[in-house]
Design brief:
heterodimer; A: 332 residues; mainly alpha; ABC transporter involved in vitamin B12 uptake, BtuC; two-stranded antiparallel sheet; 16 helices; B: 506 residues; alpha/beta; Rossmann fold; 2 domains; six-stranded mixed β-sheet; 20 strands; 32% helix; 24% strand; globular
Chain lengths: 332, 506
């Protein structure tokens, strides 16, 4: 436990904040802990978590991806077209199609970043714009409402009773979290992702295939973007080309909130989940308390600032029984 | 006194490595010219040479990165091989620990040590095996470290131990260590040397690669010296001194005469009384006269740089007084100190003293932007170029074009640019914090000459150093600092260098 806290300082911190927040909300608004509220919280945030674990892998490897939400829109649209052309399809075809298309888009990012040796934020801002422009141009901004029934039907997976049911996106979220955890914590490839993000030159000298590592990172991000996009349709019941714009920054903020480090080498699946949940709970709580939706963004912005700048180092060191200095002091 | 070339041969059994007639050319540059190099099993060996002497090229040839020209003979542990490659060298037990260590700060100590087992064909991670590998490797060194701690929580010396353990975990039997003591305190260096002794006893050979070898000479048996890509010779470490080594590396007699003079009745420029800042320095009384060079010697952590930071206005003393040219001063920040005529050349020239990516010209005038500005506060191109020309010619700095980035210059020439930059403000007091760190032995002389010339113009100079010869041969008076206090004062004309070395390094 102590060891876990020492290497997962960020996660422990956000867990404390989240627990306190939920306690306050539970007292302030009894409906907060109702089955239907919990279920809708998870149902509505499943897609963000799927994207978050994808982005996590990129951040761990020292990169960043601004383009994934637009990428997910492109995948949605193309998948819808493929399914219409096939005359319907099913979940398996949909998953394979969205996954493959997502990986392709991720690979384009990886090829550009590794090939031109340009930092990922510049490349993905470029692909963000190029993909978005292409999508809006090709579709003239038209949405698709005529989708196969299997895609838009709500599928309950677990009932929490009392009108609250967890739907398919939550199950897919759990599977994505598990798969990502397995990749980054249990395989040598995953440890190489951490190492490459931590010290690229050191990894290269140790024999890590650095180009391959970047393809894995952005490919995984693409896969999660595609799967998330597919699930988003199940929730929204439609494909709107510009519906996902802006979500990339919410997800990025949640992942960083969850302890991942911009610059690479640190971050966990649990942290991603907690980060997304924290943002969602704040929003949910404000909603229950009847605060104007216009205030949401402001409060969420302040929450992120507070959570990141309130460095509870002393608290953590008391919990773990030892002191250590913040990483940046020592790295440089 | 000449040190005789070594006649000592390696202990029984084939040597760890024997590389003979190694020549390597890069385009027009003969990086290595018919160099031979051998290390015995379990031997502690020094490889010395200035920057550009071919040290790194030789290590890379031994590590299989560079292929020597035909005619070379190479063997690892008695086995002759026609050509080497990085995987082959690694398999034969050759490991190189570069100065930057190439470790992973966010990962645990255990993963860092066992990292090589994580590379290769993708497979599942077994953390039990990783911990076991790490424990075994550390056990060979007789060191205990917290395996689950993130590497970033360790000091540099601890990370070095991890790097050595990592080499052992991949069965290294010959370890090259690139500038291992560059960023260590004395106690940490001692610890490192203790670990190296353990390695040596267990049959693992260690080669120190450095141009500062005073600390490691003691435990080494032989020294190989390179100069301009050629082998100068292989010498017994016993009886070798840092100054003799300097001569061998540069190929010329260095200025090794005491240059101390009496400042006479020159006015006192800097005087402090009871200067104290808890935890950093305490009760510091010192006085420097115009034209006087005062050395401040002490080990890392003695409070030398902290004192300098206060004199330069970057920190404020808790107690005591600073007088500059007789007037008491209290600097709120270093701009005020600069305004009062204090200049400070920082220890970390590469990151703090120069803006590496900017041009030589921009770096030279950065302290005097106001003076070279014309109407409306805009920089006058004419005044700027005049100031740059003055700064560069003053110290005969070798530059290509003033528009080249500072990073293109050698260490010695970079240091001249730093001095020029500070001289432009016509300082009364110049503080030099380890002025020759990272500067080759041969280029140091030039810097010392400049420092003496500045003193001759009436500038009071405080030279901070952790190398006794540096202050001994270049200062008029030497103050010894330990644990935040000035504990002794020496006159190089009366105190033998050996006595000073004993006092400081004791």
């Amino acid at each position: 436990m102590r060891d876990y806290l020492r290497t997962h300082e960020g996660e422990a911190r956000i867990l404390v904040v989240l627990a306190l927040l939920m306690l306050v909300l539970g007292i302030a608004s009894p409906s907060f802990f109702s089955a239907s509220n919990i279920a809708s919280l998870l149902n509505n945030n499943a897609v963000n978590v799927i994207w978050a674990v994808g982005l996590l892998v990129v951040l761990i490897a020292g990169g960043i991806d601004i383009s994934f939400a637009v990428g997910a829109s492109v995948v949605q649209y193309l998948t819808a077209l493929v399914l219409l052309w096939l005359g319907g399809g099913n979940w398996l075809i949909g998953l394979v199609c969205a996954g493959v298309l997502g990986i392709l888009i991720g690979s384009i990012n990886a090829a550009l970043i590794a090939g031109f040796r340009i930092i990922s934020i510049i490349i993905t801002i470029a692909t963000f714009n190029a993909l978005f422009g292409l999508l809006m141009f090709a579709t003239s901004g038209r949405s698709i409402y005529d989708l196969p029934d299997w895609w838009t039907d709500r599928i309950g997976v677990i009932s929490l009773g009392d009108g609250g049911t967890l739907t398919l996106p939550v199950a897919v979220m759990a599977a994505s979290m598990l798969a990502t955890w397995f990749l980054i914590s249990r395989t040598t490839t995953g440890r190489q992702l951490y190492a490459f993000g931590d010290n690229p030159e050191g990894a290269r000298r140790a024999g890590v295939a650095t180009v391959k590592i970047q393809f894995i990172a952005y490919g995984w991000m693409g896969l999660m973007a595609g799967i998330g996009g597919l699930m988003q349709v199940n929730i929204a019941q439609e494909v709107v080309p510009n519906a996902l714009i802006g979500r990339e920054l919410d997800v990025l903020a949640a992942v960083v909130l969850g302890g991942a480090r911009l610059g690479g080498g640190r971050g966990s699946v649990l942290g991603c989940f907690l980060g997304v949940l924290l943002v969602a709970v704040v929003q949910n709580g404000l909603n229950l308390m009847g605060v104007s939706p216009y205030a949401f963004k402001m409060v969420i912005g302040l929450t992120i600032l507070a959570a990141i700048s309130l460095t509870n180092v002393e608290l953590m060191s008391r919990l773990t029984g030892r002191t250590w200095r913040r990483s940046h002091d020592q790295n440089n | 006194m000449m040190t005789a070339p070594s006649t000592q041969t390696a202990p029984d059994g084939p040597e760890a490595i024997r590389f003979e007639h190694i020549s390597i050319r890069f385009g027009g540059l003969q990086a290595l010219d018919d160099v031979s190099f051998s290390v015995g099993r379990g031997e502690v060996h020094c490889l010395a040479g200035e920057n550009g002497s071919g040290k790194s090229t030789l290590i890379k040839a031994i590590a299989g990165v560079y292929q020597p020209a035909p005619g070379a003979r190479m063997s690892y542990f008695g086995e002759t091989i026609p050509a080497s490659s990085p995987p082959l060298a690694r398999k034969k037990g050759v490991a190189v620990i570069w100065q930057d260590l190439a470790l992973f700060p966010e990962m645990t100590v255990a993963e860092n040590i066992a990292f090589d087992s994580l590379v290769g064909k993708p497979r599942l991670v077994n953390y039990g095996t990783i911990r076991e590998t790490a424990r075994t490797a550390l056990g060979k060194l007789g060191v205990e470290l917290d395996l689950a701690a993130p590497l970033r929580s360790l000091p540099i010396s601890g990370r070095q131990i991890v790097a050595i353990a990592r080499a052992l975990a991949s069965d290294a039997r010959l370890i090259f260590m690139d500038e291992p003591t560059a960023s260590l305190t004395q106690a940490e260096t001692d610890h490192l040397l203790a670990v190296v002794r353990v390695l040596s006893k267990s049959g693992v050979a260690v080669v120190f690669v450095s141009h500062r070898l005073a600390e490691v000479l003691d435990i080494s048996s032989r020294v190989t010296v390179l100069r301009d890509g050629k082998l100068v010779g292989v010498f017994d470490a016993a009886g070798m001194t840092q100054s003799r080594l300097g001569e061998l590396m540069t190929g010329r007699q260095l200025n090794q005469a005491v240059s101390a003079r009496d400042p006479g009745n020159a006015p006192v420029v800097l005087q402090t009384a009871g200067l104290t800042r808890a935890g950093e320095y305490e009760g510091v009384n010192l006085a420097i006269r115009a034209g006087e060079i005062v050395g401040l010697i002490g080990l890392i952590g003695a409070g030398r740089s902290e004192l300098a930071h206060t004199l330069f206005g970057m920190t404020r003393p808790r107690a005591g007084e600073i007088r500059l040219a007789g007037k008491p001063v209290r600097f709120a920040n270093n701009r005020q100190a600069i305004g009062a005529g204090v200049a400070y050349v920082s220890e970390d020239r590469l990151s703090l003293g120069l803006v590496q990516q900017q041009s030589i010209a921009d770096n030279t005038v950065i302290t005097t932007l106001r003076a070279i500005s014309g109407a409306g506060g805009l920089i006058s191109a004419r005044r700027k170029s005049a100031a740059v020309t003055r700064g560069v010619t003053e110290f005969s700095t070798k530059i290509g074009s003033p528009d080249d980035a500072v990073s293109t210059l050698s260490g010695g020439n970079q240091q001249r640019i730093v001095l020029a930059k500070w001289l432009a403000i016509s300082p009364k007091l110049l503080i030099l914090d380890c002025p020759t760190v990272g500067v080759d032995v041969g280029a140091r002389d030039g810097i010392y000459r400049i420092v003496r010339a500045l003193a001759d113009r009436g500038i009071a100079i405080l030279m901070i150093s952790d190398e006794v010869p540096e202050v001994y041969f270049n200062c008029d008076r030497i103050l010894h600092m330990a644990a935040g206090r000035i504990v002794g004062e020496f006159d190089p004309r009366r105190t033998p260098i050996a006595e000073l070395e004993r006092t400081v390094y004791a």
